Amino acid sequence: MKQKDNLLAWRALAVTVETGNITQTALLLDLDSAKVSRLIAGLEKEIGFELFVKNRRPFIPTDRCRQILPMVLPLLDGFSRLDEFCAGTAQKILIRFSAPVEMTQQFYSQELLQYSHLNPRIQFSMLPEMTVRELLAGDSDVAVVNQSPADQSEIVARHVVSNSTPVFASPQYLEAHGVPRTPEDLSRHVGL
Questions:
Q1: Whether residues 134 and 99 fall in one domain
Q2: How far apart are CA 129 and CA 142, in angstroms?
Q3: pLDDT tier at 191, thresholds 50, 70, 90
Q4: Residue 33 domain-assigned?
Q5: Is the same domain home to 9 and 50?
Q6: pLDDT tens, residue by residue, 58-107
């Protein structure tokens, strides 16, 4: 089968545009990373142009990829609705989930995928990190944020984890400004 005629190849493309990451796409589509890479490489070969700028992370779609997405996404949506209709599950619930990319890759993507497998009516759309303001504007349904907002009257907030952020200094900085040994020494350091 030609990759251009392969619905899974186009779905892999669309999800990789969202995630910017082959591994995360593989998790979300329940495929192995090598298969996702082959699907996208096959599309690129058949259509004659690259779909992603791959020399940086996360992957970003090329201009040509952005041009074809509006043609591809309605087809994928139509086939998804057809699948749901045939399976009798047309009343699926989509939850837009936003978190820092590293947290999504390490913690959330696998858990949410497993949850979707156990609860087929629930689907998650993984979005990049958002602020509480964007959450309140309706850009996401659930957001993992790095700080608790002072006003929590319009949201339901749950504490997930506490962590501390270490402070690092380069050897050049320490050589130029000295190594602080006491809290009083910190007063001579800009930004600390």
A1: yes
A2: 10
A3: low
A4: yes
A5: yes
A6: 889 999 999 999 999 899 888 887 877 776 655 678 889 888 888 877 78
